[in-house]
Amino acid sequence: MKKYTKTIIIIAVLVILALGYYYYLANKDSKKDATDIAADTSEVSVLISKDVMANYPGSPKDVVNLYARITKAYYDSELSDDQIEKLGKQARIMFDDELRATQTDEDFYDKLKEDISNYNETNTRISSYVIQNADKTKYSTFNGRQYSSIELMYYLRQGDKLQSSHTKFTLRKDDDGNWKILYWELVDSDEDME
Question: 26: pLDDT confidence band, cut at 50, 70 and 90?
Fold first, then answer.
């Protein structure tokens, strides 16, 4: 009988602990569940730890895709200043020297933090993005330098509203043969992204 009493007490304690943990999880005040937080943190960690220089994207579409992933990460998660700067550093690796020279690193990070803060205040997030098919990438040569342009559609969610932002990226091949972002601009386009 002592053997069964001990077993019953252990089971009762385990049931109480399980119920207490369930109560804690059910009443926890959180805007995101653990899966969302883990997914956000995972993407941010992957992007921050990526060795962009050693594994530089091989095509204009790949460069724009990586840049769009970084941009989405800026606005999808609650990031520390350190994480924002690390993501910004990754993005600036893909900037053409001419674009990078328009701002110091510090100015870029300050402007980026301000922009992220504005998005957070208006509850705006990039919900997804679509990049134009690679076969629709336009290529040209000017003054012996190779250029390309490709379009991307960001889908922004602000509260219950869904908006789109059509962006055209112009890239230039550097002396090492890497495609670098020279500039981007908002455009109106009826062109099919797929």
Answer: low
